[in-house]
Amino acid sequence: MAYHIAEKLNTLNQFKICVVNHKPNKNLNYFKKLNCEIYTSLNKIPTNASLYIISVKDSAIDLVAKKLTTIAAKELVVHTSGSVNLNVLTKYNLNSGVFYPLQSFSFNTSVDWENTPLLIEGKTNNEKKKLNLFAKLFSNNVLNCTSMQRLNYHLNAVIVNNFTNALYTLSESNCTNNKLKFKLLFPIIETTLSKLKENGALASQTGPAKRNDLVVIKKHLKLLKSNSIEYKTYKLLTQLIKNQHA
């Protein structure tokens, strides 16, 4: 996420970007392409920045925030986590906020910032206003959220993105093992998303679980019986669909 934020800021030609990591890392080479100033120690954090963005793993946010207490006493400090409460910053009396893009990030994959929802939170109204102006440099879809709302959005992002992709991975593996072409499923994947947008999730559900077609379900389970996790996953998802349409 840090790289994509820096990449977007670089395109605006309005900011001097400094990137600080706690140690040397090969991924810092990506930032060099953006003409960022790079430091490989938290002791090198610049003291004259107008905005500090903490984009690290959740467990490290507190450590970085504590380091900033004497560096960024008057400037806005934000983290980018979907699941960490704002109080990880406010407890250090920092001018605090959250800048959370509701999106999936990977190196070498472009981001459609304009249509990416940005969930922001600020300790005070003044901080909310500053963060809102900054967020609108990225997206047309900026929403003020509480920490609990953001956590719930993050939970649902995991369900629709990470869990769904895990099922794609399961399917891709099954196709490979049975010498089938996974790409033949792309049209049905795209149709499912299209129907979701048009009709909503519940109304778009189809398949043997919704029909309670036990004959087909048993055939599928027989194919999966050699892998207990996949077998149990199929049964649990089948029961989930049945419950949703009871």
Q: What would the keywords be for this entry?
A:
246 residues, alpha/beta, Rossmann fold, N-(1-d-carboxylethyl)-l-norvaline Dehydrogenase, domain 2, 2 domains, 5-stranded mixed β-sheet, two-stranded parallel ribbon
What's the CATH H-level superfamily name of the largest domain? Answer: NAD(P)-binding Rossmann-like Domain
Q: What is the CATH first-level class name of the largest domain? A: Alpha Beta
**Poorly predicted ranges:** none
Helix content: 40-55%
Which strand order spans the largest sheet, edge to edge or round the barrel? 3-4-5-6-7
The secondary-structure class comes to: alpha/beta
What composes the largest sheet? 5 strands, mixed
Got a strand count? 7
What number of domains? 2
The CATH architecture of the largest domain is 3-Layer(aba) Sandwich
Q: What is the CATH topology of the largest domain?
A: Rossmann fold
Order of helices and strands: HEHEEHEHEEHEHHHHHH
- What does the overall shape look like? elongated
- The gyration radius over C-alpha positions equals 22 Å
Mean pLDDT equals 95
